[in-house]
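FAQ: What does the model actually see?

It sees only this:
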Amino acid sequence: MELFSSLSFSVLCIQILVGLSKATILFIVASGLTLILGVLRIPNLAHGSLYMIGAFTTYSIATAFSQSSLGFWLALLLAPLVVALIGLIMEQGLFRFLYKRDHLMMLLFTFSFTLVFADLVKLVWGSDYRSLAVPEIFQGSYLLLGMPFPRYNLFLLLLGPLFAAGLWYLTNRTLLGKISRAAAVDREMVGAVGVNVNLVYAGVFVLGCYLAGVGGALVAPTQNISQGMDHSIIIEIFLIVIIGGLGNVWGALLGAIIFGLTDAIGILVAPQFGIVFPYLAVITVLIFRPKGLLKSIW
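And it is asked to produce this:
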């Protein structure tokens, strides 16, 4: 109790906002994974590797155009498209022949991609850490409740609801979203009415990879870009997808918020054990809701 009483309201609020800004990136990456899980039934372990490639590609493009004030924005536009192209090659070249295989085989198959991508990143970018400066427009902080709050984190906070609204519109109001939801329930029936299911699957897989690339691009200015960053993110987003409900985009949003907030508050109240708090939250959710907080599509 003494520890909590020593925390000021302002510090607590700022830390909550930091947690929500992290949740934005987690949600964007996890939403891509949950779309692939929900529609294609693929537990894609290579999703974290695509996120890592997105971060490294962002670094390369932003560095190449460092003399321009638009360097980061160009990287934010192009890097996810590069990742989406890689996803298209993966889907068309291999995955589309394996959709009917069991989940364990697909799990092992996607794991093999993590090894390939790890060597690819090492070959292209080497083993050294990379760092990318925050765009000039977002350098510095705003004063919120008398405490400094990074401008880039505020940008992430504003971006999160936009992505959530965009994904809601895509999955609920567009023809692709409605067909994808139908294909997730009964692929054969959707194919029987004349829909090219393979094309739908390719579109969903590419979209999921694109979202992984967006997450990698957004995280690049906030941390060191290095080999191994795929390992931590894939664990986190799988847990988020599980507690939210497999294949449920809104569940991914709720899971990301829980994960981000517990991580931020854990660091605040017990820095040496901060990493444990999100996993305790996951365990608590699964004890009371083994199938996730929201309805699972699987």
